Amino acid sequence: MGIKENLKDIKNKINAAEKRAGRKTDSVKLVAVSKYHTVDDVYKAIEAGQFLFGENRVQEAGKKFLEIKEKYKNVELHLLGVLQSNKVKNAVKIADCIESVDRIEILEEIEKQCAKIDKKIKVFFELHTGEDSKSGYKTEDLLLESIKACADGRFPHVIPCGLMTMAPFTNDEKLIRDSFRALQNLSKKIDKKYPQFDMKELSMGMSGDYEIAVEEGATIVRIGTAIFGERVYSKNEKA
User: Fold this and answer.
1) Closest to 7 measured CA to CA, from 66, 48, 65
2) d(CA 40, CA 17)
3) For position 193, what pLDDT does the model report?
4) Which of 106, 130, 165, 230 has the maximal Cβ count within 10 Å?
């Protein structure tokens, strides 16, 4: 199947999972993860009605999406994966949301660079819930410290919008569900403690587990391979 057909199939499966969970249809947004794929692939997705995308590498995202966003003003770009401090300056110029804030130091750099260009940016705080993943805040307390810093007014250009996690890479459905439920439970704690923030977004679930994520309350799923297929690497890239 092509990109258009893949998108249709995935959206049908998301809708089915919403129904199983007793949720409203279209309560879940799809981030099409286009890392390592071409501008033409992104255009094919746009032509199929997909306008929300995710990229991991700042340089690659800039090369692709500066052109794309100039043509399509309603395209939204989320940056995923660990963000290095020296990449923040360019990241905040191209991204609409940074999904993987995992330490207070990166918040400080985001604030510094956004202040320079007078831009406010949405962020998600990533919680480490899967042993296979090395990214994310290691504990809820560390994550909550960063949200408290936002509440104290330290980062006026940062808009806290939600939480993000990666489930462990396993066939054990219980472990996957436990990961997603941990994020859901933390979201409820934050909602009670910091009602001034609208942090109801839960970004969880990828190509292998997004239907489970929807059943466990995801509002955003991040899917790449199931949409765009496997990336064909050149010899230089493999090297």
Assistant:
1) 48
2) 30
3) 96
4) 165
Owner of token pair 């052109």: 67
Residue with tokens 């919403």: 18
Taking the model in full, what pTM does it have?
0.93
How many CA atoms within 13 Å lie on the side-chain side of 63? 12
Q: How far is Cα 223 from Cα 8, in angstroms, rounded to an integer?
A: 13
Burial 209-227 (b: 16+ CB within 10 A, else e): bbbbbbbbbbbbbbbbebb
Digit-coded pLDDT (tens) for 74-91? 999 999 999 999 999 999
Q: How many CA atoms lie within 13 A of 73 on its CB side?
A: 0
> Is the distance from CB of 94 to CB of 144 less than 8 angstroms?
no
Q: What domains lie within the chain, and their CATH numbers?
A: 3-238 (3.20.20.10)
